Amino acid sequence: xxxxxxxxxxxxxxxxxxxxxxxxxxxxxxxxxxxxxxxxxxxxxxxxxxxxxxxxxxxxxxxxxxxxxxxxxxxxxxxxxxxxxxxxxxxxxxxxxxxxxxxxxxxxxxxxxxxxxxxxxxxxxxxxxxxxxxxxxxx
Length: 139
Prior knowledge:
Blueprint: E1 23-25, E2 27-28, E3 33-34, E4 36-37, E5 40-41, E6 43-45, H1 46-59, H2 86-102, E7 107-118, E8 121-130, E9 133-138
Antiparallel strand pairs: 1-6, 2-3, 4-5, 7-8, 8-9
């Protein structure tokens, strides 16, 4: 027995979250500040929004800030000062980066991953394969 009347015209539609266009507030990556237009936050969509999301996720320590749920962010600081070999450090950076971005359902894969380690600084470069195409990331 249904809870709906038989003559019902009720149309139930299941909406997948990825049916929505992904949006984020625009950020100036050089200053790490939000971008405003006419006094309001500028909103970017699709791959530009995913670029913002990815960079923020890779600059945010997982489980450190209550504003984010426990899955958001990364665990990159866990490898700082461990004295890993270059090969092991690169492998861990790849694993941690992939784990951090895979939380977003709009991101399908990561390709062309590379790491340049210069002293205590690591620069991570990769191509994120998204629902909207590809976006190049440098962090």
